[in-house]
Design a protein that fits this description.
The chain is α+β, with helices and mostly antiparallel strands and 319 residues long. It folds into three domains: 2-55, Orthogonal Bundle (Arc Repressor Mutant, subunit A); 64-263, BirA Bifunctional Protein, domain 2; 268-315, SH3 type barrels (Roll). Helix content is 30%, strand content 29%. The chain contains nine helices and 14 strands. The protein has helices at 2-8, 16-23, 27-41, 64-70, 87-96, 147-161, 222-226, 232-253, 259-264; strands at 45-48, 52-55, 78-84, 103-110, 129-137, 167-170, 174-177, 180-191, 197-205, 272-277, 280-289, 295-299, 302-306, 311-315. Helix 5 (87-96) links the parallel strand 3 and strand 4. It starts with a helix and ends with a strand.
Amino acid sequence: MLTLLKLLKDGRFHSGEALGAALGVSRSAVWKQLQHLEAELNLPIHKVRGKGYQLASPLVFLNAENIALNAPSLEWPIHISDSIDSTNTEGLRLANSGCPAPFLVLAEQQTAGRGRRGRKWVSPYAQNVYYSLILRIESGLSQLEGLSLVVGLAVMRALRESGVQGAALKWPNDVLVGQKKIAGILLELVGDPADICHVVIGIGINVNMRKADEVDQQWTSVQLETGSPVDRNALVAKLSMQLQAYLERHKTNGFVSLQEEWEQNHAWQGRSVSLIAGVNQIDGVVLGVDHQGALRLSVNGVEKIYSGGELSLRLRDDS
């Protein structure tokens, strides 16, 4: 099927006869493969009598050399998969097998992509960015303070460079445009955080996705915001360069050096919110974050600090 997809990737019409000749199969076999492409990869294909078959939009596949050309000072080896369960899981497998960190894992498709709190991350084929950076942390807990917020800054800057000027941050791990989610971050840690451990920085960005019925929240994509398809290789390069620079600043000066920048770009700064922790709800006003990246809320006029991976922040109806 992937050979057929590569024949169709230019977005032009190709006749069933020509496709069959290129693949060495019958036209009916081509038809069956096209049906599988639509069903399994969620790629719409136009079928016009007398013209043949055409992808709804052209595809540009991820390419390590292309990324390197756009990010010449990038120091991370790049591993690209066609289809895997998740880039985070693959990154952990590679680290456990002895692959030296840091390194980058990308995929055209995830079959079991996941977000925070066990949520599914919808991962259509060759439309979005599924990105995991694996780091080896040797200097203890200080290198983990505010890390997900630092990653959020890098994602936001890369999106703005790509034309999404309205990209802003939502504590702790989302990037929004207005009230719509465009990117999410999932950090996973393996090992002893007080000694030596590996951290997987997982990033999912909606890039060229225009339809996803199974997403259960408001969302948008780079293409929907800019009005034109985006070269994912160029976006990965921008993201990697931003991430490399922000991680270096964080390593050298700590999150406190980025705290003010993060607060200035927090979409819900000063807003009335509800903090959801399991079955409990805490209402307050966002004051910002502390030097470790924890949320600062004014609750009945008293400043309180909240942190933890199972917390969820929502705007109040009266905000």
